[in-house]
Structures are given as structure tokens and as C-alpha cells.
Amino acid sequence: MDRLGLIAGGGGLPVEIAEHCRRSGRPIFVVRLKGFAGEDLAGYPGADVGLAELGRCMKALKAADCRAVCLAGNVARPDFASLVPDLRGLAVLPRAVAAARAGDDALLRLLVGEFEREGFRVEGAHEVMADLSLPCGALGRLRPADEATTADALRALDTARAIGRLDIGQAAVVARGLVLAVEAQEGTDAMLARVANLPPHLRGVAGAGVGVLAKAPKPIQETRVDLPTIGVATVEGVARAGLAGIAGETGRLLVLERDAVIARADELGVFILGVDTSAGGPGGA
User: Fold this and answer.
1) For the segment 13-63, what is each residue's pLDDT rounded down to a tens digit?
2) Largest CA distance in the chain
3) How far, in Å, CA of 150 to CA of 5, rounded?
4) Contact, 217 vs 170, CB < 8 A?
5) Bridge partners of 5?
6) What pairing do the DSSP bridges indicate for beta strands 171-175 and 178-182?
7) What is the reported pTM?
8) In this structure, are residues 77 and 100 in contact, taking their beta carbons and an 8 Å threshold?
């Protein structure tokens, strides 16, 4: 197998990919982005690289004989004025600033293009680790309780796609047909915390949830880099917000720590539903 160059930001996704490679025997080299990558990745062969040190990153990957790269993890939008680029980063920086003005997806496409121009094959996290993505139908023992909840799931997905077309965010919450929240730069956890502070009659309460969180990739986005993700914290945030469940597009939502997510969702009474958008309706419903 080709050695994978994992360009790692924060969060659990890079760790899960690295552990998968170790279990499966795939050689891996981890580029740990300074200020973002977690300590769990320190034990892997790799290098610590600044966010604007593109030349150093490329050189390290080539020296490690990486032919494929995977960009994974959380990286906050930088203050470009505070970056300290190397020569390659300096050459790309004006285009990166212009791309960032067009939205996060434009910036990610620029970065993917730079790696491809250097001869690297860019693999999505779901391609490196096929069982990361959400399957069709219910994940766990719970399903939407009624047609109204299924309708909320589909409307939330439609809303998430609508804000995605404007490159705003990837998530939305709908309860009883009413859009309660959409995600912007604050992220999903902060959005769910806002929902938890809404009056209970607009949502539900723990143990008697109403409404659905949906996450969907932006229609224009580079899916090898930025597919939406859920984990145990997402399930817990949904429960605290008084929602009934989570919906995502089959194969286009990443589920971190799948066994733990299923166990926690079942414990808290939260359903997780994979919607087959090619069929135009909820998967398995």
C-alpha cells in the first residue's frame, strides 16, 4: 500500500485515521499542523509544520516517500496577517487570501490543487477508511418516531444544503417544521448550545425530544477534504438541546468512534438516520 501522508488538524478524525492505518498495516507519515494537531499523534512518524509552511510540508512528505495525502481535522480560519510562511507558502499566500474571500470551500480547493500539482494523490477520509461514512437507514436501534419527525429530518437536510450553497455552514436544526438554527463559523456544538437555550415549546426536552439536527456537505465543496462529521459530543449536544435525532446523507457524513456513538445515541434516545438522497427520501424509512 502507498504510504499515506496525513495532514492533521485538530479533533478526533486524524487520530481515527492514523489508528486505522496502524491496524491495517498501511504505512503513514503525519504532518502535525502546529497549534491544531493533538498530542495523540505525537507517537507516529512525522513532522510538525506551521500552517503556512507549505514548502516544508511538501518536502517532508516527499522525503517520507508519500504518494497519497489526506487532509483531516479541524483548522480554524487563520489571521493571514499573522502567518509566517516559507518561500512556497509565500508564493501561494496571495491566492489563498483571495480564495478565502470567496469562502472556505474555495480555499480548500486551492490547497488540494497545490498537492495535486506536486504529484500527490488526494484521498478523502472516507476513502482511506471506508467504514467512517454513514450507512443507509438507522444507525443504532432507534428510528424517527413518526412522519412529522421524518419530515423534520428532510427539511433540516434541505436547509443545510441551502446554506451550503452560500458557503455558510453544513448543519441546520428543524423542529415541527420550523428552522430553529443554522450553522455558521461557530460550529455544530455551539449551534446546538444555542438551540438548548431556546424555549422548550420550540423543541423538546431530554427524553422527549422533538426536532432533528441535519448535516450535509456543501454542494460546491471538495468532499475529499471537508465532509461533515458527527461524534459522541454531537449526540450529547443533540440530547441536551431536546432534539429527537440526527440525519445525514448516506455516504456523505463521517461518524467518528462509531461503536461509541451508537451506544451513546441508544442510551440517550437519539436516532441517527442515513438518508439515501439518490432515492429522494429517507433511507430505510
Assistant:
1) 999 999 999 999 999 999 999 999 989 999 999 999 998 999 999 999 999
2) 59
3) 40
4) yes
5) 29, 69
6) antiparallel
7) 0.83
8) yes
